[in-house]
Amino acid sequence: MLEIVWHSLTRRWVQSLATVISVAVSVGMLFALYRLYAGASLGLDEGARRLGADLLVVPGNTPIEPETLLFTGAPTNIYMRRELEQKIAELPGVRRTSAQFFAQTLNETCCSLSGATRLIGFDPGTDWSVQAWGTGQRDRVLHANQIVVGAGVEGVAGNKAYILGQALQVVTVLQATGTSLDYSVLMPIEAVRALSRTIPYLRVPLGKGNDPADFISAVLVETDQRADKDAVAAAIERIGDLRVIKASDVLGSIKQQMRVSFLIMLGGGLLAALAAIVQLFARFSSLPWDRKGEWGLYRALGATRGDLKRLILGEAAVLTGAGVTVGLSLGGVLGLLAHAWLQGQRAFPFIEASWSKTGLAIVVTGAAFGLVALVAAWWPARQSGRIAPSSAMAMGDID
Asked: Which residues span the domain enclosing 186?
């Protein structure tokens, strides 16, 4: 039976190839879109969980957009007076705060990391999240010569890294978080300030004669559970020239933009799937008229009605199976290329979906197109059993 199915398909290789390609294109588009949407959703959700703060306070003249600061890891030298943290901590509705100090590596021989990379100095005395991710233990404190690197940082060899001329020990590499931490190096705040004192380029944004110890770059703020975050943010901005970034608002805006973009792309994928389904139905609905003579000959040679039904269903299974297999492979490659591009651009938080979820998507896709092929082949398979060998061979393939 398989030999007959294969012979039947290869005799009509143009039609067969067109059907396989249409199924493959639609499956590939839908599978790639699923991987991208799932990865982006996971990245945003993990980013919200790992950010660990309700508000992020930065200087009012910060030149970059909030989503860029939160998610891209772009090196940013922004500074404000350190006493502002205390003023923020004293505001009603603020539960706790923690300061950070930013610097950056240089794309020179002093640094082994690939390209300029953000250095985030965190305060071990007040930090409630970064240190736990880096060491795995909240009671373990990083030393001045120890660092934690993000999952997306390149240029780390073994447990050593050279930053601004100093050899530092890599304690661990963070798991992907979907935030700027993936492209940052974490150190105790005083260690980053000490490095900044040694590089004239990093001292320029602080102003001539200023000591890094008197400055911070950002303040993480966790509000009381019942506090109005908007009211707290407004109170912080009244302290001085400060900019308050509400993580929930940024994440919500990005999610909305993502949904709109993916809905547009999903529309294209569904149109491609509809075209493939129409082609499957058109291909098999014409069989009772186009192949009467062939089926009559099979009946005359002893084929039963069940044999003809299995022949038609076998052709549908081979065409759909080939299209789904090629399409899943194509979608996987497109997903990997898109993931690599997003990582290179650092434009979007992205975490690969688990193997179990990806496997479920593969099973659902295969089952859906298999069901469509079964429905498309059901009517011609049913009609094939009504053909009388003598009349079919006398009439030929077309009445």
From this structure: 62-240
